[in-house]
Amino acid sequence: MLNKIKFFISNFKFLYSFLKWLKNNYFNTKIFFLIPKNEINNFNFKKSKYLTFNKKNLNYVILANEKDYIFITDKNISKNQLKGKLNNLLYLIINDGADLAYDGNCPYQSEVMLVHDLKKYSQKFTLELYPYKFFYFYKEFNIKFKSIGINHRKYNFNGSFILPGGGLTIGDSGNVNFRLNFIPDLSNKTFLDIGSEEGYSVFNALKKNAKFAKGVNIHESEEYDYFPRYLVPKRATGRLEKDKEETRNFLKKIYNLENSSRVSFDYKNIYDLGNDKYDFVFCFGVLYHLKNPYLAIENLFNITKETLLLETQGSFAGKNKFSVLLSSEDGFVRHSPEALKFLLLKAGFNSVEVIFSGVNKIKTISNIVLKATKKIKN
Q1: What are the boundaries of each domain within the chain?
Q2: Which of 79, 155, 254, 357 gets the highest tally of CB atoms within 10 A of its CB?
Q3: pLDDT by residue (tens digit) across 206-243?
Q4: DSSP 236-283
Q5: Cα separation of 35 and 38, whole Å?
Q6: For residues 300 and 292, is the Cβ–Cβ distance under 8 A?
Q7: In the CATH hierarchy, which top-level class contains the domain 177-373?
Q8: Using CA atoms, how far apart are residues 100 and 71, in angstroms rounded to an integer?
Q9: In this predicted model, what pLDDT tens digit does every residue of 74-89 receive, in sequence order?
Q10: Nearest to 152, CA basis, from 250, 243, 241, 86
């Protein structure tokens, strides 16, 4: 229902922009407290006022003493909880000599850090988006940080999602709940995720009772699909393979799946997926990057036993409902929802439903999700 409301509002450009501004300035629950260095041992919440974490208020931080600290948190947390959380974080700052201390089990990414380091961050990234790209920030500036709870910030995530301990990962591509919400109960089903990155969809499928879940990725430095090939960038992605593998191993550990036969990861290309078939195939954010999306669709049909869930960036169909958009932006071919539905049926699926479409006259490029099913053979 929420996605439908957002889609309806997105048809009205001024209203959409106004509501976005309103959310960022008046309904933003992310807040911060400035803590002078000389008050680090006796900071008083009652005498201190929080500021909303937005561009205007963050100017105060830029002007603050570099040796002061900033406590970033959320106003949904009660003041009593905030006091206890702050005391625990300051203990790591004072006694362990950390530049930054964060609560790895907090869904609001609560932390204390030096103003000096936040200024460093602002030299590389948009300040109001902090802690976006934290992994690259701490690597470049050698930030010394400690955690209460799960220490997940030393790993490189593509998606932001809640971990078993309650903490929220910092993903390069932002919140992935939109994707995860499409995964149904998978009792006694096998699951394949194509382009699985660190495997957030794989672990979510296991939480939803899949008997086996597998994630596949390509070796991006060698196989990244690009047209024309001679213009392929040296670094198709900022994420190194070793970092992604370390992150997957970390997730196996915290999900208690280190030695489990229920989960597997492999390197496979969508053009060569092998002969294994899976009850439920999940392919999100892949198709619009490909030079040959039609071969990919055929291969998806061949490995699917029952259901394929396909998400990609689509284009506004206009008068021609079977339109295709060639784009100079990231990605290559973007089909209209109707065109993709036609192609999936032509590939052999018995039934295809567009279960989400964000494209319209204003948002000419947006996400679309299709569910394609086969008749189950007895």
Answers
A1: 28-148, 177-373
A2: 357
A3: 999 999 999 999 988 778 887 777 777 776 667 888 99
A4: S-SS-HHHHHHHHHHHHHHTT-TT-TTEEEEE-BTTB--S--EEEEEE
A5: 8
A6: no
A7: alpha beta
A8: 10
A9: 999 988 888 899 999 9
A10: 250
